[in-house]
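Researcher: Let's try something more involved. This one mixes different molecule types, so please make sure each is placed in the same coordinate frame as the others.
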Amino acid sequence: MNNYPQASRILVAIDCIIFGFDGKDIKLLLIKRNFEPEKGKWSLMGGFLNAEEDLADGAVRILYNLTGLKDIYVEQLETFGKADRDPGERTVSVVFFALIKIDDHDSEAVKSHNASWITLDARPKLIFDHEKMVTRAIEHLKYNAALHPIGFELLPERFTIPQLQKLYEAIYNIPIDRRNFSRKLLSTGLLIDTGQKNNNSATKKATLYKLDAERYKTKFHSFWNFMPDSMKSQ
Amino acid sequence: MNNYPQASRILVAIDCIIFGFDGKDIKLLLIKRNFEPEKGKWSLMGGFLNAEEDLADGAVRILYNLTGLKDIYVEQLETFGKADRDPGERTVSVVFFALIKIDDHDSEAVKSHNASWITLDARPKLIFDHEKMVTRAIEHLKYNAALHPIGFELLPERFTIPQLQKLYEAIYNIPIDRRNFSRKLLSTGLLIDTGQKNNNSATKKATLYKLDAERYKTKFHSFWNFMPDSMKSQ
DNA sequence: GTTTTTAGTGTAGTATTGACACAATTTAAA
DNA sequence: TTTAAATTGTGTCAATACTACACTAAAAAC
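Model: All components are placed in one shared frame. Result:
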């Protein structure tokens, strides 16, 4: 069966931008390629879409191979399709955006892929158009974290409001007023007080919250103002 | 040169969702296929990505073929990649989202492609997964028109505030308070009073505005609240 | 002229936000 | 044991933005 004899068949790649948060900095999971081409250079984790594989399944497969995690937050970000983007052969790359709880990942799998967590500031030069992909992903993170409750995906299941604030301060690289932030967050009704306190604090222990899973699902697509208005015009 | 001998080469299609506004309803430009496969059925305008063509150029080419327009608002929306989405052959489709000023298009080109403007409510069953693509595009329009000044792309260069309001009411299918809408719009500083009045009105003639091109560019990525808050939680 | 329809502006009450101060908790050092 | 330092939790007030309204002006039809 060949309905489209004149059309070109093209390689379809999948590349993954994987963000994590260590309590202080936003980090990217990048691999130092130990295979050709471009062996020894830094790149995003990726692979090719298989002939009979759904696109979304391909992304999950590649993310699982690197992190050992299956239930992580993934969004399709954008497809990069400049004709000359891969000098080896014409390749269209579908880029996925993933947020993971950094402590959950399988460090053996990461090590075997020659991958490392690298802060955004310290990221090396990347192959092909991967730097553009990362830039686009950072924009996406900044844009969406202000409107939708995705920040939680980067934190442990139980987290404190100060932790969440540090996360947002890292994303936007600005200081946020503690009191206004706390008021805004609690008013969303997304947070449930677990009754527990954080114990890795050297001073006053903060309350541990968890997400209200039901509300999180139903309200995910609402718009929120997680950030001060002044930030949103940036 | 074949660096990736084991990977599969796949057809890459481009499909375009083209929105227009006739002053009353949001419309979609759909084609009734006069070619195989699925001849006689309704679908989105599309085509295959050429071997040495940039992805974005492919979208512009396909949009130009159908509408005769080159400078239109286009965004990449999402790539659809279910393994079985095209029964003819495995095809990954990159979907583009376009907004056009409905009076500007080349009606001869549209006619020759067997295409028609169809209101959202009246749209027929579409081939493959095109209905999912349309649903996704409508979501995207609703989401983005509330936050960014994209509605203007559907109106003539000179437009009135009541026209703009009818557009937003059509997008969200809700009535909007005239006075609050006008105040909010003018406060963005995006509108320039042309000094002219609309003359296709049977009663009081409305002021014609145009976009402040400079402000439009620099402020495009700011968040705005074009819609009442009550709407945004839907 | 009078009526009908649409456009343009104003205002008062309410809710949200931003900028701030103060009290409470915990550990470590004095 | 007390004190200091750091961090968390809560409260208040003024400014701003939003909502729900009412009124005036312009244009054409009768």
